[in-house]
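User: Structure with zinc ion, tokens only please.
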Amino acid sequence: MVLFDSHIHTLPFSPDGHQTIEEVLESAKGSEYGYIITEHMDYGLEGPMKFEFDPNEYFTKYGPYRNDRFLLGVEMGLMENETARITKTVNENPFDMVIGSIHVVEGYDIAMPEYSEIFNKREAYSKYFDCMYANIRKYSDFDTLAHIEYVCRYAKYDDPEIYVSEYKEALTSIFNFLIENDKCLELNTRRLDKEKGFNTLREIARLYAHCGGRYVTTGSDAHYAKNIAINFDSVKKIIKEFDLIPVYYKNRKRME
Ligand SMILES: [Zn+2]
Ligand SMILES: [Zn+2]
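Assistant:
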């Protein structure tokens, strides 16, 4: 099957994107991978940038480019208080794929340095996983759980890596929920170029497989065209090691 990069952002729908749809289409031409655009929809996220877009505009503008290897999804920021708006948007729009993300914990945008300043690492990471577990139980109409190691990405601790043994109980609860509800785990490739990042995701994938998880999606979270499908050779190693099945979604249906 064709492996998909199912986590890509573009301008103007994701305000932190740095690539236009034309650049992404150009990249797709010569690529061995399928692409899924997944723009940010973070209802309730406070800050200078608004991570929300108009789905009608999105489908009007990008709909003509849709084909079997170029699909249109959304990255939905999961927040318990926003369930009504999230439900409405997902139900009323023809997204191919919905990826569910935790970007905000106890009102803090965890991409901001404050989160590492206010909480020590143990607190910050425990809160993040607790928040994730609460949110996926509250709203579970997503297809894959995005970038589970996201809390490491912007953390300011000397060693920001997640050590699975320290959060095993929380991660096991999350994985059991995903498996019981037929959801996937995204293997986010963004940090796989560094040995530590690779080892972190590898150990997370090991636990997921140990819990009985099989299905994974692969996503670069590219905001620049040069980062599309970045480190996919590394993620293939993880998939192979734990005998995982890479999938993507089209019309909200899992495709192998
Ligand atoms: Zn995200
Ligand atoms: Zn993203």
